[in-house]
Amino acid sequence: MHDRSSAEQELIRENALLKQRILDLEHSDAQRQRAEQALRASEEQFRLAVNATNDGVWDVNLLDGTVRFNGPYTAAFGAPSENEEPWAWWTDHVHPDDRDRTLSSFNAAVNGSVDAWKCEYRFRRIDGTWADTSDRAHITRDSAGTAVYVVGALSDVTESKRVHEELRQSEARFKDIFDHAPVGYHELDAEGRVIRVNRTELEMLGYSVEEMLGRHVWEFVEDKELSSQRVRAKLAGAVPLQQSYERIYLKKDGTPIVVVVQERLVRGNDGTITGILTTVQDITERKRAEDELRQAQKMESVGRLAGGVAHDFNNMLGVILGHAELALEQVDREQPIHSDLTEIQAAATRSAGLTRQLLAFARKQTIAPKVLDLNETVGSMLTMLRRLIGEDIALRWQPGANLWPVKVDPSQIDQILTNLCINARDAIADVGKVTIETGNRTVGEDECADHPGFVPGAYVRLVASDDGCGMDKDTHAHLFEPFFTTKEMGKGTGLGLATVYGIVKQNDGFIYVYSEPGQGTTFTIYLPRHVGKAERAQTDDLAKSTARGHETILLVEDEPSILKLTTTMLERQGYIVLAAHTPGEAIRLAAEHAGQIDLLMTDVIMPEMNGRDLAKNLLGCYPDLKRLFMSGYTANVIAHHGALDAGVSFIQKPFSVKELAAKVRETLDRE
Predict the structure, then answer these.
(1) Is residue 461 a contact partner of residue 437, using CB atoms and an 8 Å limit?
(2) Which whole number is the average pLDDT over 655-665?
(3) What is 15-59 written as a DSSP string?
(4) From its phi and psi, is residue 145 left (phi > 0), alpha (psi between -120 and 50) or beta?
(5) Which helix (H) or strand (E) holds 92?
(6) Edge to edge, what strands does the sheet with 599-603 contain?
(7) Which of 289-298, 359-368, 438-447, 632-641 has the highest mean pLDDT?
(8) What SS3 state is found at 498?
(9) 611-619 vs 583-592: helix crossing angle, rounded to 10
(10) Is the pLDDT of residue 466 over 50?
(11) What pLDDT does 216 receive?
């Protein structure tokens, strides 16, 4: 029993083990089935994920050569047919220009030791068009390092590349606009340092971009301390930004420029101030032009005033001088009153000189231009100029060769050099020298850009320089203003250089002045070249033209005292005078006069009718009528731009008996 029982028990154990193995086998098979199901589910999820992506996913089994593509890949690019070899199909779809590069890149990755490959190339779509693509893949290798499997994803980047290119072009256009904007532009960080600056501002200031970036903006302005305080306050939000303001910036070479600044704060996402955007516009030339315009307007206003005063003053001086001269003719030199009359005459003559300077400044001086050789004209004045400056000052004359002619009234050259030499004489304390030069000069556009007031063209230069005390910038700025003088009270009128300025402008020229304190001064006058032959300058010789006359003169003057005085002067010279107070009265006298009228002597500015129109009226009845105009100034009534027409005579008020006699005789004798 015992043995049987043991055998049975052993059998039971073996049977139990067998059952357990059967159960284990059944359990293992269930696990396998579950694993297979999980794998199928995972593969389905992978397939769904691969097909759900926009990229074209592909994989290559390098051991058996099989190739698979997901749905998006085949939808966009197609897939090889059953009869096509996949590798040849793919190779054929790569753009010919990209094929060698792409294949070499892929083969190098597979045959090398890397685990990843990436390449951009053009690939043919299913519709035959070319797409810009980005292909990237992962390479699986065996334990020996041999590539066995490659899975990749192909993306169509055509649109993104187009957008990227448009963005690149947009950024390039922005950079071009930024760099070549008509105004300077820079950006500051929260510490006031320059972190971006455009080319316009770099060129404006003369710096390179490396020299500006990282530096505080106040290093580039004139008032550094004040600018530093203001910029820091703005960045701290302590003061509001101004809409625009002017500031003095300094170029790299130290030259100051005037700029208009406009600013805008830059804020972060949390609203804190992170910097300042700034535009900078150079207005130096505009400010200079505005200053010159204001100066020109001021000079023009003073000129109009000076011209009007001179005209009225000349009428009064004419009466004083005329009567003084007539009285002197009737008084013996031994009588005490003769010296008094002489003093009156001298004072009136000096006053007449001042009014002529006022008229020259106002450019209302009547001129009779002649075509001149400036060398001859200046040369004839040297003796007078040497006497003017005195023995202690040497006068050097350096005439230019082959000088071009100019068309100027010779008396104006006399005025210019007289005033410049007097100015030079007064600037020289003791001994020194004055140099007068002439020369030809062509002024180009570039020079005009650097020197406001210059005009391109061909000019003759008249240069007067001295080695005197020179002048500072403030004096230089007011140099040509009338009545401005640095001389002691009673030593100067302040009209000398204003006269020079007016004469040069009246002749369409310009002046350049260079001076340094203690180094002397140089005045360079540019007179336009005249195309024509020069005339020899002639000096007036009153003695040749003071012969007495017998002709009939129609005298027209609206100022009663001058009319009476001039009538007396002419009658004492033997002329028959028909005196008229108005143009209407002159026309009536001419119509009633039975004999010949040889000369019309008329004022320019009168009520009813000006002198020029009166002459035209009378020429209808007296076609051979000679004409002599007189005035304190002409106001362009008988002159075109201040210059007399050919054959027209003019006498400047006030005039002496000798001047009147000479001019009347000259006019009557003219053919």
Answers:
(1) yes
(2) 86
(3) HHHHHHHHHHHHHHHHHHHHHHHHHHHHHHHHHHHHHHSSSEEEE
(4) left
(5) helix 86-93
(6) 576-580, 552-556, 599-603, 626-631, 649-652
(7) 438-447
(8) helix
(9) 20
(10) yes
(11) 95
CB 450 within 8 A of CB 411: no
Amino acid at 175: K
376 Cβ neighbours under 8 A, 6+ residues apart: 534, 536, 537
Q: Which residues pair with 186 in a beta bridge?
A: 197, 278
Whole-Å CA distances, 430 to 58, 394, 435, 446 = 104, 11, 16, 40
74-88, 186-200, 468-482: segment of lowest average pLDDT: 468-482
More confident residue, 473 or 141: 141
Reported as a pLDDT band with limits 50, 70 and 90, residue 165 is: confident
Helix (H) or strand (E) holding 99: helix 96-111
Among candidates 179, 175, 195, which has minimal Cα distance to 187?
195
Is 520's pLDDT higher than 50?
Answer: yes
* SS3 letters across 515-558: EECCCEEEEEEEEECCCCCCECCCCCCHHHHCCCCCCEEEEECC
The mean pLDDT of 38-50, rounded to a whole number, is 46
- From the number of C-beta atoms within 10 Å of its C-beta (0-12, 13-18, 19+), residue 606 rates as buried
* Strand partners for 441: 459
Report the percent of the chain where pLDDT is more than 90.
31
What SS3 class is residue 153?
strand
Neighbours of 188 (CB within 10 A): 23
Task: Enter the tokens of residue 534.
Answer: 């020069």
Mean local confidence (pLDDT), 646-657: 76
- pLDDT at 240 > cutoff 60: yes
Rounded to 5°, angle at Cα 634 from 633 and 640: 140
Residue 391 parent element (H or E):
none
pLDDT single digits (tens) 567-599: 998 998 999 999 999 999 999 999 898 888 999
Contact (Cβ atoms closer than 8 angstroms) between residue 556 and residue 506: no
3-class DSSP assignment, residue 317:
helix
In three-state secondary structure terms, 118 is: strand
What pLDDT score was predicted for residue 218?
94
Query: Quick check: 490 pLDDT over 50?
Result: no
More confident call, 317 vs 258: 258
What is the SS3 string spanning 620-651?
CCCCCCEEEEEECCCCCCCEECCEECCCCEEE
**519: nearest Cα among 450, 439, 432, 436:** 432
What interhelical angle do 284-330 and 336-362 show, nearest 10?
160
Instruction: List, edge to edge, every strand of the sheet that includes 67-69.
Output: 67-69, 56-61, 147-156, 130-141, 116-124
Whole-number Cα distances in Å, 296 to 190, 301, 501? 46, 8, 12
Closest CA to 523 of 444, 445, 435: 435
DSSP code at position 224: H
Identify whether 654 is preceded by a cis peptide bond (ω within 30 of 0). Answer: yes
* Mean pLDDT (the chain, rounded): 81
User: CA nearest 476: which of 510, 514, 520?
Assistant: 514
Q: Are 190 and 275 in contact (CB under 8 A)?
A: yes
- pTM (2 d.p.): 0.42
Query: Once rounded to an integer, what is the mean pLDDT over residues 355-366?
Result: 56
pLDDT of residue 543: 46
Place of tokens 């009234």: 409
